[in-house]
Each structure stands twice: as C-alpha cells, then as structure tokens.
Amino acid sequence: PGCQVASTSGPGPTARWQTSPWAANQVSVHPPASMTRSGALARAQGMAKILPRAPPVTGDPRAPPWRRQGGYDADRSIFVAHWHWLWLLLAGVGGGLAGSIAGLASLVSYPALLAVGLAPVTANVTNTVSLVFSGLGSVWGSRPELAPQRARALVLAPSAAAGGLCGAALLLLTPSSLFTRLVPVLIGVASVAVLVPRRRREAEGRAAGSRLLWLWVFLVAIYGGYFGAASGVVLLAILLRVLTVPLAASNAMKNLLLGLSNLVASLVFVSALPVRWADALPLAVGFLVGGRLGPLAVRRLPALALRVGISCAGAGLAVHLAMSAYR
Q1: Is the dihedral of CA 265, 266, 271, 274 positive or negative?
Q2: HSE of 289 in the Cβ direction (CA atoms, 13 Å)?
Q3: Residues 314, 191: contact at Cβ < 8 Å?
Q4: Could you count the other beta carbons within 10 Å of the beta carbon of residue 165?
Q5: Residue 297's CB: how many other CB atoms inside 10 A?
Q6: What is the rounded end-to-end Cα distance, in angstroms, of the chain?
Q7: pLDDT for the residue 89
Q8: What's the confidence (pLDDT) of residue 177?
Q9: Minimal CA–CA distance to 278: which of 135, 84, 107?
Q10: 58 vs 112: which has the higher pLDDT
Q11: How many Cβ atoms from other residues are within 10 Å of residue 258's Cβ?
C-alpha cells in the first residue's frame, strides 16, 4: 500500500519502467528509478562530490593489498626527496664557498631552490634565512683574520645591523622596481673596482678605520637586506679601497658584516613571510660547511687570481641582471 506501479509493456525481461508519477492507488512490482542502475550511478556521482576522494591504489598489482597502497610510488617519492635534499646540500656547499670567497652565494643557492619547485618569493626568503649559516661558517673560519680587527668590527657592526633592518623593512613596504634597474650598474662598478689596485699615496693617506666607512657599510647593508645579489662584491670593493689590510682580512670583515646584516633581515622575514623550513635545513647545513671552507681557500689562493675571479663573476651577474631589467 502506498507504492507506485506501472509498466509500459507486459511482464517479462523486456518490460520498460515508466518513471512518471502514478496515482496513489496503483502498485508497482518494480523498484523506483533511484534504485535502478542509472539511479545508483547518479547517487554515487552525487556522493563523490561530497565525500573525500580515496587515494588511488598504486604499486605492483601482484603485491598484497596491504602493501599495494602507495607501493612503488611511495618508494619513488622517498627516492626523489633524498635527491632533493642532496641537491640542496651540495648547492649550499657551493653557495657557501662562493659567498665566503666572492660574496656571490645567492648566485648558486637561489636557482637551486627554484629548481626544486619553490615560488620566487618563498625561495628568496628561504635563501635569506639559510644564508645566516653561511655567515656563521665564514666567521668561524676567518677568526685569525678577524682577531686583529676586533675594535673595527665593534664599530661597524651596529651599522651593518641597522642597514639589514632597514633593507628588510623596505622590501616589505616598497616595490622593487627601482632597485631592479639600479642593481646591475652597482654590481658592475663594484666588479671593476675590485680589480683596480690602490695607489700607495692613497693607502697611506687613509686611516685603518675611515670616518665614512660606517656610512658605506650601512648603505651596502640596506642593499643586502633589500635585494642581496652580489652585496659581498660591493662591500669587498669598498673595504679594499678604504682599509689598508690584505685581501683575506678585508674578505673576513666583509663576511662578518654581511652575516650580521643578513641575520637581522632574516628575523624580519621569518616574522612576516613564509619560509620553507624543509628546504632551508639542508641548504643551511651546506652553507655552514661551504662558509667554513671558504676562508681556507682565500688564504691559499693568490690574491690576484681571487680578484680576477670575483670581478669576472660579478660582471657576469651584472650583465645577466641588466638583460632582465632593461629588456
């Protein structure tokens, strides 16, 4: 009672069910449309839009079901992740060496982060945070060169920290279009300045700690906190022109000041921007190792060869950035 019945043909397997509503006094021996195969399919499709989709069964079909879930795809993901970490670790070692020797760490590490799939903003922030360990390794390896310059470091450190803070704030508050056009010129001039030797009169006429050196450090630290590319080349060129110490000592002071500036900028970025910590960890370990080995290479390589290498690398980066900025 209360059911609906109708058939457009006689009983038998060829009967077709009519889905139009029937009178209340008719009785049907057939299920309603919602219980037929087409109705069940429609219901299943509707539920599929609501319920979460189950993970696909992958792997070797000959394996037991409890091992087939994830299967070979899971093993492949672990394999890819291991190579992913190894790639960033090696990039960190190379970047640490390039940063402690020439101030060009991001030239190696930033493209490596992009290669593993990070977005440009996330890669930039992750790279900046990881670079702190490059500075730690460089300062650790440069202790013999920094010990005689302790008084100068204490004078210049506040300028570097303040510049890093200002640069990070500018990055968060202003567009980067101005720096994008100015950076290639700045790096190109610094790359040439690294090759120009000091005149003897000029070296004798300048004190070991110039009065304007703190201002130059502050300005370069602003640039380092804002953009950072080849900031080590710029600061090294200034230190070589102002100070009367060897290349290794100037390079050690450069590593200390930029490391401090980068540390302050990283603290600002961590509080305001996303950091990919899973990628920052292997990169930071590589930076620490490469930064520690860099000063050893600076002590053993000829100064002229280092100047030429730093200048060529900086000039190449300046050309690349100019082609991107002015096209």
Answers
A1: positive
A2: 12
A3: yes
A4: 18
A5: 13
A6: 81
A7: 93
A8: 65
A9: 84
A10: 112
A11: 31
